[in-house]
Every structure is written in structure tokens, then in C-alpha cells.
TrEMBL record:
<keyword id="KW-0812">Transmembrane</keyword>
<feature type="transmembrane region" description="Helical">
    <location>
        <begin position="6"/>
        <end position="25"/>
    </location>
</feature>
<dbReference type="InterPro" id="IPR036457">
    <property type="entry name" value="PPM-type-like_dom_sf"/>
</dbReference>
<protein>
    <submittedName>
        <fullName>Protein phosphatase 2C domain-containing protein</fullName>
    </submittedName>
</protein>
<feature type="domain" description="PPM-type phosphatase">
    <location>
        <begin position="39"/>
        <end position="277"/>
    </location>
</feature>
<dbReference type="Pfam" id="PF13672">
    <property type="entry name" value="PP2C_2"/>
</dbReference>
<keyword id="KW-0472">Membrane</keyword>
<dbReference type="InterPro" id="IPR001932">
    <property type="entry name" value="PPM-type_phosphatase-like_dom"/>
</dbReference>
<keyword id="KW-1133">Transmembrane helix</keyword>
Length: 279
């Protein structure tokens, strides 16, 4: 008699358990197809320049999240135009991307299109821009760079440098390591900071791209910045800000505040983008 009285309750309990199991399975399936949560922050200052030659943009698609930063060359005319063309071209080409397998090819194609478009737009007048671009897709970092803007990963309180600066000093350092010149030859060369590769240059060489995608850890911060940032604040100052438990946006704003706080007489345009890997 007691078993008959309990039977309706057991049926209801079994039904509730079945619903909970279905809900759990559905949640697992949704999470399996979900894209990593990438938090984005950025900051910028014009510094002591008359014009803002830095330009940047970010976008997210089914193939991942991209950040692009271009630093128009202040010593040449139309720096702002060059950086805008380059960033816009990269974003447009990324939006056309239909497969993550084509990400490395995307960097090469977008850089060549940018270079061609800048040269066509300027019609013989001088102009150019540096550029760094980072794509985070399924927990991996893909990147491309040309010029002297930089990409870094901030992980567990330490920086991992990613790209090489395309300046004369880099070539001189290679010659120093080969024993062809002295350290003083490198440090005293008056043109050591001169760019040797950039977009908008008739002799443009291939963009530097990652040989293989870099697996990211949860909490890794991918930093893109123009030389107006890294020439103004020290690595220790950056580390102090990035180690804080704050959003990428707040961190980017603090970095720019640190740049402006220096009140350097010749402060260049400064831009920083931070992508934090949420998975």
C-alpha cells in the first residue's frame, strides 16, 4: 500500500531528473560551440603632436577577434591617411575570411593590398605607416607586423615579446652578433631608429607573420602598442598596471595616463590595445 502511494512521487521525481539531465546536456553542447570570451580595452593620446597619426580598430566574427593598430609615419606627409587605409583594409579583409585555416594567408594578402592602396592613393607623394595585427581564434594567437610598433603577451607577471622591430638597429644588432661591428657602432649610429620596412613603401617587403599560432593561457593579455607608449613608459610601469585585477579598458586608460603623466617635451602619439583571453 505504501509503495502504491509513493509511486506518483517517484514518477514526478524521475521526470524532474530527466529534465535536469536534458538541460545539462544542452548546456554542454552550447558551451562546446561557444567562442572564447575575449575582453578588449584601448587607449590613445595625441601627445605633443599636432595631428593624431595613430589609427586602430577591433572586430569579432565567427573566426575570432582581431585588433589592428597602425602608426602613421610622422616624418612623412599623410601619416594619418596611411594608417587609416591600412587598418580599414585589414578589417575589411578579415570580415571576408571564411575559414581559420586561411588566417596566415590573410595577413599577407591584407598587407599587400594596404601597401598598394596607400601608394595608389598618394600618387607619388611620400607616406607610410607601421602596423601590428593580432587575431585570437579558438585560444590561439595569430599575428602580423611591419615597422616598429610591437605585440607582447603579458602572462603571469612577465612579458613575452612577439615581433621584431623593422628598424636599422635590428640589422645592426644582427651584424654585431655576427662579429661584423662593435656594440658602439650599433649604439652610436645616427640612423639606427630608421624604419627599413613599412606600408606605403615602394620597396615594401613581406609582413612578418607568426610561424605557428601561439597557444594562449586563460588570463593572458595580448598587448599592441605604438612606439609612443613603449618609448615613454618602462616595462616595470607597464607590469605594475597590467598586474592589477582590473578590466583591459581600465588598464589601457591607466597606461595612457602614465604616458601623459611624464609630460615629455616630444611626446609622440601613443596608442595601446589590450586583448584578454577569457578562456
Amino acid at each position: 500500500m505504501e509503495e502504491q502511494q509513493l509511486l506518483p512521487y517517484l514518477i514526478v521525481l524521475a521526470f524532474i531528473i530527466s529534465l535536469l539531465l536534458l538541460f545539462y546536456v544542452r548546456r554542454l553542447l552550447l558551451n562546446r560551440d561557444a567562442k572564447p570570451n575575449i575582453l578588449i580595452g584601448n587607449g590613445q593620446t595625441i601627445g605633443r603632436r599636432e595631428e593624431q597619426d595613430d589609427y586602430f580598430s577591433t572586430a569579432t566574427t565567427a573566426n575570432g577577434t582581431i585588433a589592428v593598430l597602425a602608426d602613421g609615419i610622422s616624418g612623412l606627409a599623410n601619416g594619418r591617411v596611411a594608417s587609416t587605409i591600412a587598418v580599414t583594409t585589414f578589417i575589411q579583409e578579415f570580415l571576408k575570411l571564411n575559414n581559420t585555416k586561411n588566417i596566415p594567408l590573410f595577413f599577407t594578402k591584407a598587407s599587400r593590398l594596404s601597401n598598394t592602396e596607400i601608394l595608389r592613393n598618394f600618387k607619388g607623394t611620400r607616406g607610410g605607416t607601421t602596423l601590428v595585427a593580432a587575431v585570437i581564434s579558438d585560444g590561439y594567437l595569430y599575428w602580423g607586423a611591419v615597422g616598429d610598433s610591437i605585440i607582447m603577451i603579458f602572462r603571469d607577471g612577465e612579458f613575452i615579446n612577439i615581433n621584431q622591430k623593422h628598424i636599422l638597429e635590428s640589422l645592426l644588432e644582427e651584424r654585431y652578433l655576427a662579429g661584423e661591428v662593435t656594440k658602439d657602432d650599433v649604439l652610436d649610429h645616427p640612423m639606427r631608429k630608421r624604419l627599413i620596412n613599412y606600408l606605403g613603401y615602394e620597396g615594401f617587403k613581406n609582413i612578418e607573420i607568426c610561424k605557428a599560432p601561439i597557444p594562449l593561457h586563460k588570463g593572458d593579455k595580448v598587448i599592441l602598442c605604438s612606439d609612443g607608449v613603449y618609448n615613454s613608459v618602462t616595462e616595470i610601469e607597464l607590469e605594475k598596471i597590467l598586474s592589477k585585477n582590473i578590466s583591459p579598458y581600465d588598464a589601457a586608460q591607466e597606461i595612457i595616463e602614465a604616458v601623459e603623466y611624464k609630460r615629455l617635451r616630444n611626446q609622440d602619439n601613443a596608442t595601446v590595445i589590450i586583448l584578454e583571453n577569457g578562456w
